[in-house]
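Lecture notes, continued. The same structure-token format from the folding unit now serves as the input rather than the output. Read the line below as a description of shape only.
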């Protein structure tokens, strides 16, 4: 990007936005690494929040953020012929990931369930309640709810509970490995 082009960071009225690439101390290490290597990162903001309010419902209420502007990242897995298949599903917070039908078919597994939280935390290097679609293990699929792409600002985890990332919805489709899925959230 030329130096004379200024990027306007996404913001929400109740939170102070900082450039995420300039504040790696506010995100988990794998997220900082992913931001440093992603062209879209210049348009991503990070905001400090109370870690006790990291869960979506509490955060939405405390900071006045509509659920339609939040993206929940859930990790699911299944096994096919001894091969474990894992996907991160980013869905609009007013919906739930269609794990038992759509995601199961996309992963081509007989049974799909939520990945054990202790494993998700260990394998991502992120905190419970802060797992985000940036900086995930490269072998994992990243499924993005199509409805999020229309949101001007989407709040997602930062890898830690004490902050969140603000991402223009359209950029979620540009995350490394992202697969936009119609109707992922129901």
């Amino acid at each position: 990007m030329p130096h004379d082009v200024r990027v306007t960071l996404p913001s929400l009225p109740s939170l102070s936005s900082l450039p995420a690439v300039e504040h790696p101390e506010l995100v988990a290490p794998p997220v900082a690494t992913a931001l440093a290597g992603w062209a879209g990162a210049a348009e991503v903001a990070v905001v400090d929040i109370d870690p006790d309010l990291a869960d979506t419902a509490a955060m939405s209420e405390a900071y006045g953020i509509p659920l339609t502007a939040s993206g929940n990242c859930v990790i699911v897995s299944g096994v096919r012929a001894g091969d474990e298949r894992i996907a991160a599903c980013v869905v609009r917070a007013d919906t739930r990931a269609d794990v038992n039908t759509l995601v199961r078919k996309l992963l081509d597994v007989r049974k799909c369930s939520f990945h054990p939280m202790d494993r998700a935390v260990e394998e991502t290097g992120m905190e419970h309640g802060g797992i985000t679609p940036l900086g995930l293990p490269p072998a994992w699929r990243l499924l993005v709810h199509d409805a999020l792409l229309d949101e001007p600002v989407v709040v997602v985890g930062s890898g830690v509970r004490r902050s969140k990332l603000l991402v223009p919805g359209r950029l979620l489709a540009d995350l490394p490995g992202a697969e936009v899925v119609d109707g992922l959230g129901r």
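Point for the exam: The chain has one domain: 18-181.
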